[in-house]
From TrEMBL, chain A:
The chain crosses the membrane at residues 35-55, 75-100, 112-137, 149-173, 180-199, 232-253, 265-281, 327-350. It is found in: Cell membrane. It is a multi-pass membrane protein. Residues 1-19 have a biased composition (Low complexity). Belongs to the UPF0718 family. It comes from the Bacteria. InterPro entries: DUF318 (IPR005524), UPF0718 (IPR052923). GO terms for cellular component: plasma membrane. The keyword Nucleus does not apply. PANTHER family: UPF0718 PROTEIN YCGR (PTHR34184:SF4). This is Permease. It comes from Micromonospora carbonacea. Residues 1-29 are annotated as: Disordered. Keywords: Cell membrane, Membrane, Transmembrane, Transmembrane helix.
From TrEMBL, chain B:
The keyword Transmembrane applies. It comes from Micromonospora carbonacea. The lineage of its organism: Bacteria, Bacillati, Actinomycetota, Actinomycetes, Micromonosporales. The chain crosses the membrane at residues 36-55, 93-115. This is TIGR03943 family protein. Residues 160-250 form the DUF1980 domain. It comes from the Bacteria. Keywords: Membrane, Transmembrane, Transmembrane helix. Residues 64-85 are annotated as: Disordered.
């Protein structure tokens, strides 16, 4: 097995990958899985890489304009920032999928789904991470028999109320500690409302978790690594879609446009809610951006902080990938409306 | 995308992340504090790739685990995996883009274009009082620190001391060059500029994104940033020189 030497980091993985390719070709079952009978994915990947390396100069030249360059920088940085959280989330979700017995969740959560929802939302407090990790974890919870309402409440609450995010909010708004309270309360309330709403209106067949044969019947080690590989490739792919969208918005929408919207209380709330969806910031960073949007009212900035971790382009993309499109296209707009409503109310009362 | 291609993709992504974090490349995109997590995540990706290949390339009978009879199901399912693999993990191909971005393109840190796009970051007072300037003449300060002292306490803690700061040249609101520095809180997607106007010996004629070290004193002049209507403080420049870009271009 000469695979591990190919994995040496540092020397540049592009070079390291090529030795794997002939092996993949010779592997048992390789030709059977080929696309169109001639090329397997490994061969396609190898050909792509060779092309990219050959045309590297042209590629760099094509990306040299300041706008495209900024786009590439933002795109790469969203992904670099998200990778540790994604890997951590996927690791945890693989552990849940493989090592935590189903009976554990039956004991840990109240039996009645309506009670499980608030418990699951509050459980988000202990998980330091951002939204990219929460999606695979929630998928894994549903797979392990946790009621979807509770798993979805956890999905919404975890990125918004965990200690790191709240601490970041406190640092970003030094003069307004009530912002931290308002953010935590409003996010918890939205998560619970969405959980209960799912119990009332949700239909189980909207969630279509991909069939995962590798999770059953194999040894635990094999199942664990299969879950890791699958979730990273899958959630990571959708994360790329989201990062591309976020980078485009970042480059195409100058902040100047927002200035004109800041003066009207209603428009400013809507503008920042939409901006939160489009920008797809990490929930650990959004407080600092909200702090810099100083021309907007505190309430509209609270809306920005509550909506962002729950509905944004990269989340919609990842949810569509993991739970299915029918789910994501209903869940995301509903969450958006509830989050804007609750956050505006919380802002009016608390700020 | 079959499993071996997925493994190669994981290997590439992990390798790209590890490579970016053992060199200083990652500093163009994220904060320094993320480094250990990046390395750990990259190694986990590489481990996942190796384990995937190991399970996939193992001889099919796999008698290694007698306790679990259906162990070779992993291979039996390989065909099923492909069955829905045609439509399902196809999105995984997109992971090639960040690999490409990190290994081949490696875009530069945010510069003058991003400065023009966003309003200056100093909109609200972040700190109630400022400690004395660091010792030395000129005192080394960051652009962010100078701008905050100049705006929120009208230069009181600066007095008439000379300060030295490093930033890059960007186009200012009135067409004059300004000194700027990007501030990150998490990653470059939330990068915001701190803008500083210059009077006196202004470094004119330099292309944008040139790094300069300027020495000067507090100026009470204030301009408005047209982007977010926030105040831009000024520095009375006494001398300046071009410098290479610092290791970490963000503050």
């Amino acid at each position: 097995m000469d695979v591990p030497p190919g994995a040496t980091p540092g020397t540049g993985a592009a070079g390291g990958a090529t030795p794997d390719v002939p092996e993949g070709k010779a592997a048992p079952g390789g030709p059977r899985r080929s696309v169109g009978g001639w090329f397997g994915s490994v061969e396609v990947l190898a050909a792509l890489l060779v092309l990219l390396i050959v045309f590297r100069e042209q590629l760099a030249a094509a990306l040299a304009g300041p706008r495209l360059q900024t786009w590439t920088t933002v795109f790469v940085s969203v992904l670099v920032q998200a990778v540790p959280f994604l890997v951590f989330g996927v690791l945890l979700s693989a552990v849940i999928a493989v090592f935590v017995p189903r009976s554990f969740w039956a004991r840990a959560l109240p039996r009645h789904p309506a009670l499980a929802v608030p418990v699951a939302s509050a459980a988000g407090v202990v998980l330091p991470g951002c939204e990219c990790g929460a999606v695979p974890i929630a998928g894994s919870l549903i797979r392990r028999g946790v009621t979807p309402a509770a798993a979805l409440a956890f999905l919404l609450a975890a990125p918004a109320v965990n200690p790191i995010v709240l601490a970041a909010t406190a640092v970003a708004f030094p003069g307004a500690p009530e912002m931290v309270l308002a953010r935590a309360l409003a996010s918890l309330v939205v998560a619970m409302i969405m959980g209960w709403l799912w119990l009332r209106l949700g239909r189980a067949d909207w969630i279509r978790l991909p069939h995962r044969p590798e999770l059953e019947g194999t040894s635990r080690g094999a199942a664990f690594w299969a879950a890791m590989r699958h979730d990273i490739i899958h959630a990571g792919g959708f994360l790329v879609v989201g990062a591309m969208a976020a980078a485009s918005i970042n480059v195409l929408v100058p902040e100047r446009w927002l200035q004109t919207l800041a003066d009207s209380p209603v428009l400013s709330v809507l503008a920042l809610a939409v901006l939160a969806v489009l920008l797809s910031l990490c929930s650990e960073a959004d407080a600092f951006v909200a702090a810099s949007l100083s021309q907007f009212s505190l309430t509209s900035r609270l809306v920005f902080l509550v909506v962002g971790p729950m509905v944004d382009l990269k989340l919609i993309s990842m949810q569509a990938g993991i739970f299915g499109r029918r789910f994501a296209f209903r869940f995301a707009p509903a969450t958006f409306v509830v989050a804007v409503g609750v956050a505006s109310l919380a802002g009016t009362v608390l700020l | 995308m079959n499993r071996q291609a997925q493994a190669v993709m994981l290997l590439l992504l992990g390798g790209a992340v590890v490579r970016a974090s053992v060199t200083d490349l990652y500093l163009r995109y994220v904060k320094e504090g993320l480094r250990p997590f990046l390395i750990a995540a990259g190694l986990a990706l590489i481990a996942a790739a190796i384990m995937t290949l190991w399970y996939d390339l193992r001889p099919a009978p796999a008698p290694a685990d007698p306790g679990h009879g259906p162990d070779d199901d992993g291979h039996g399912h390989a065909a099923d995996d492909d069955g829905h693999g045609h439509h399902e993990p196809r999105v995984g191909w997109l992971l090639l883009l960040p690999v490409l971005g990190l290994l081949l393109v490696a875009p530069p840190a945010l510069g003058s274009y991003a400065v023009g796009q966003a309003g200056t970051a100093l909109a609200s007072k972040q700190q109630s009082d400022y400690p004395p300037l660091p010792p030395g003449d000129p005192a080394p300060v960051t652009v962010l620190d100078y701008a905050a002292r100049a705006l929120f306490e009208r230069g009181e803690s600066i007095g008439d001391r000379r300060v030295r700061l490093t930033g890059f040249i960007a186009p200012g609101p009135d067409g004059q060059p300004i000194l700027a520095r990007m501030v990150l809180s998490c990653c470059a997607a939330d990068g915001r500029p701190v803008k500083l106007g210059m009077t006196g010996d202004v470094p004119v004629g330099l292309p944008h994104d040139t790094w300069v070290e300027v020495t000067g004193r507090y100026s009470d002049r204030i301009a408005r940033d047209p982007v977010n209507d926030a105040e831009i403080p000024y520095l009375a420049v006494e001398s300046w020189r071009e410098v290479p870009a610092p290791r970490n271009q963000y503050e």
